[in-house]
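A further point concerns the way the authors explain their paired sequence and structure data. The central task, working out the C-alpha cells from the amino acid sequence alone, is never made concrete. I therefore recommend that a typical entry be quoted early in the introduction. An entry of this sort, consisting of the sequence and the corresponding C-alpha cells, reads as follows:
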Amino acid sequence: MTAAEITVPDDLETEGAPRWRVLTTIAAVLVALALVGVALWWWLVRPPYGPDAMAPRAVVEVVTAETERAALNRLGGPAAEAVFLDAEPGRQLLVGQVSWTVPKGASHDGRLAILVIHKPTNAVAPTLFGVGPKPEEVTSGWDGELDEVAQEYDWLSAVATGQAESTLHAPGDALLTHPDTPGPITFVAQLRPDVTQLSADDFLVALVFVGPRGQLYWAERLLG
C-alpha cells in the first residue's frame, strides 16, 4: 500500500484565466471605453468650420428717429423698412448690418446669433430687430444656449450681467437665424431711455455659432 500524495491547495491550477489576466482585460476595456467617450465628445463639440470660413463683417451707424429710415434704406434697401422703429423724436438708435458667406455644405441645424452690446453700460441691446434676404429665417429674441458664451468669452460678460427692458429673465435681444441662411442681416437697436449720447465706438457686435445640440462652437468679435 503506497502513501497517498498530498497536494498543497495553492499549487492547484484554477479553472479559467488567471485573476491578473482578467483584471488586465477589464482595465483595457475601461481605457478603450474612455477613449471612445473622449472621441465622441470631441466629435460632438467640434465646429464644422471656423469664423474664417464665413468671413463675417459688420458696420454700424448711430442715427436719430428722424434719420433712421434713410439709414435703413441705404444699408438694406426698401425691405429693411420692415424693422423700422417708431421712436420718439430725437431718440438715438443704432442701425447696422452683418454680412457673411455661407460655407459650402452648411447645415440648416444649429443657430447663428448676432449680439449687439453697449460697452459703456456692458448691456445687451434690449430691443433689436433685423431682416435679411429670407425674412422668415430671422427672429428677434433670446436663446438660453447663449448663456454659455459669458463663461467662455470674458468680452461677452454682458450676456450674463445685462438688463432687459422687460420682466423676462434674459439679458436683452439677439438676432437668431440658421447657419445656411444667407446674409446680410440689416438691423436696428434701441437702448434704454436713460442711455443717451450714443457713439458708434460704444458698441460691440458679435456673431455666435451654436451647434444643433446646443453646444457652443465659437463667438467672433466683429466690431468693438
